[in-house]
Description:
Number of strands: 20
Low-confidence stretches: 1-25
Structural class: mainly beta
Largest sheet: 5 strands, antiparallel
Mean pLDDT: 88
Helix content: under 10%
Oligomer: single chain
Amino acid sequence: MHTGLMFLFALFASLLNVSAQLATPVLKTPVHDPVMIKEGDTYYIFSTGNGISVSASKDMKHWKKSQPVFSKPPVWATRAVPGFKGHIWAPDISYQNGLYLLYYSVSTFGKNTSCIGVAVNKTLNETSPDYGWVDKGMVLQSVANRDRWNAIDPNLALDGDGTPWLAFGSFWNGIKLVKLNPDCITLADPPVWYSLANRNRDTGLADSLAGNGAIEAPFIFRRNNFYYLFVSVDFCCRGAKSDYKMVVGRSSNISGPYVDKNGIDLMLGGGTPVRKGNPFWYGAGHNSTYTIEGKDYLVYHGYDASDKGRSKLIIEILDWTPDNWPVEKSLPDQSSF
């Protein structure tokens, strides 16, 4: 073959290969409420699903589904939450004290009779003899007509002294923060609580009703001298009618107050936009944020307009402005994956 033709053929093949790499199976990965962690050379995604869904990848693009964390619903959870049948929401994964800690939410839709539980594991590698999830049971519970908060959407965060805190909450009176003991499993005694973010809720509603104060999915990310509180607002889980979006505020203290770029407190409905829907995605939210090998990543789900609004995994590099705010970007179109 002529040298020039060989070069063109090789270039064309290379472009096809690059295109194939860009069109990664991320878009083919159904996921809801994803969190991510890396052990060794493998990334793991934990997400909402029966028994908690788990997927593994070597490159954050090609994901293979693993066995769920729980083969059957935790007995304590079925007793604590009437109607719970094993579909576990919004996990949070971290590594502390030599163990992987997996917080998870037990609830039923639109109710605040809810619990947060935690399971531990020595490794995430299913082939290791040390692998095996041990459920430590309930950490926190909310009760309808008693609590004006909802014990779901947990996120473990450490302050500058290494003290563990659990952020959580959905609808009702918004996002809360509670202090944990050093074991990261039990609540501190005496209890220490803070309110971090809220949106206006219909007045006059019974405590058992969620109302329309749509705010949830807290994730606290520490960077430089600030704690960044990411939350999701408006409505998830409605397919083509989803208008979920992410906003952020920051504080010099883990307990707040968290304010947006305009100085508005998130307790007063503030929030600097991070991601929102566009023609390719009806909405996007429930993010987690990580620094891995010197890069910051934003991990979340979007409601795919090309697939009837089904939720899909999106992973992006998170860039920052010169004044240390997350850069707001339009969600990528499907051809960029």
